[in-house]
Amino acid sequence: MLEIDDMIDSPTSREIKRALAVKMILCDFKTKAICSLLNVSEGFVSKWKVVYENEGAKGLRLKYKGGKGFLTETQRIETLLHLKKQPHYGVEELSEWMQRRFGVTYQSRQSYYDLLKAAGLSWHQTQAINPKRDEEEVELKRHELKKTGDPRSRNRIWRSHCFCSR
Fold first, then answer.
1. How buried is residue 135: exposed, middle or buried, by Cβ count under 10 Å (0-12/13-18/19+)?
2. Segment-wise mean pLDDT, segments of 10 residues, the chain, 166 residues
3. Most CB within 10 Å of its CB: which of 63, 95, 112, 132?
């Protein structure tokens, strides 16, 4: 039963739930029964019944169609082609380029990240110095390399002195 409830509660079922609630009310189902079957509140049933009475079936449709993008499809393609020509590109560089070229500035950095990702670029900045670098370990490794010439040779030397059977 849980899978059926999950399907009923899925985001794609909103219009269907509205229509079913109204149809069930019109077929004289009790509000509590509708709420139980569709996993909705009594207010949901009441609201969509009133909307249907005032606007008809088209009133049950989702109104939001998404926002208009800042870039046209042509501008987006031009931006992606520009980015693909670059070996590396940062968010600030992209922001400045888009402002100069199209007069567009995004409020959220995520929009720039999405463009960089779509172009196959990484936006992570490299660091000049490894923050996890331990100077003592580096010096020990350098000393070992000078002594043996090959970091893997240490294992060969150890194995040659080992009395284990092979």
1. exposed
2. 64 82 92 91 93 90 72 91 85 91 88 89 63 80 79 52 50
3. 112
